[in-house]
Amino acid sequence: MSTITSSKSKATALANVQALIAGTQKHFPNGQFTLGNTAFTTASLVQTLQSLADALTAMAAAHASVKDGGAALRTTETKVGPVIRAYTGFLRATFTNATAQLGDFGLQAPKVRTPLPTEKRAAASAKSKATRTARGTTSKKQKLAVKGSVTGVIVTPITTPAPSSPPATPAGPAPVATASSAAPK
Questions:
Q1: Taking the CB of the first residue and of the last residue of the chain, which one, N or C, has fewer CB atoms within 10 A?
Q2: How far apart are alpha carbons 168 and 146 in whole angstroms?
Q3: DSSP letter at 36?
């Protein structure tokens, strides 16, 4: 892939190719080029660049067409989807046991649910009861009956200390430097 079409957007790539075409036609109207062991005239180079610009334009149009098609599909599915669900429900209710007729509509007959054998049902029930006991899960009414009691709790109030005042500064005059103490020796 060339550096022209690997840019951030195809619109930018198209603009870059069109700028190359315009600049070539402006500055080299009758030029001769050898690029990558291939000889080009200005006209043949512009034609090559224009083919890329045409391909980018066609791709942009195709993308727009796909987006429009996708939006139309979603709109139609929104309208028709509930109708299809209702109609297939009607067909399943009408032809419950007639697999051939359901097959004509592309539907399969619902699978018949096989009940659990009594041994497996008893084992599942025992396992469920054991799990509830192990987890301590109870029914809603049993949970309402559980009440907690609190004894021996001492509440200690939290008090905040009063804000402290800033440290006091001396009220006396500041010492004055004299010339004798400031002079170098």
A1: C
A2: 62
A3: T
Amino acid at 101: Q
CA dist 89 and 7 (Å) reads 51
**CB-based contacts of 69, cutoff 8 Å, min separation 6:** none
What digits encode the pLDDT tens for the residues 121-132? 888 888 988 888
* Total Cβ atoms within 10 A of residue 52: 19
- Give backbone dihedrals phi and psi of 170, rounded to 5 degrees, phi first: -65, 140
Q: How many CB atoms lie within 10 A of CB 66?
A: 10
Question: In this structure, what is the dihedral angle of CA atoms 86, 91, 96, 98, given to the nearest 10 degrees?
Answer: -160
Count of beta carbons in the 10 Å neighbourhood of residue 45: 21
**C-alpha dihedral sign at 48, 53, 54, 58:** positive
DSSP code at position 1:
-
- Amino acid at the residue 92: R
4: closest CA among 43, 68, 62, 48? 48
How do residues 53-84 score in pLDDT, each as one tens digit? 999 999 989 999 999 999 999 999 999 999 99
Which stretches of the chain score pLDDT less than 70? 1-8, 150, 162-185
Report how far residue 50's alpha carbon sits from residue 20's, in angstroms, rounded to the nearest whole number: 10
In the three-class reduction of DSSP (H, G, I as helix; E, B as strand; rest coil), residue 71 is classed as helix
DSSP 8-state symbol, 7: S
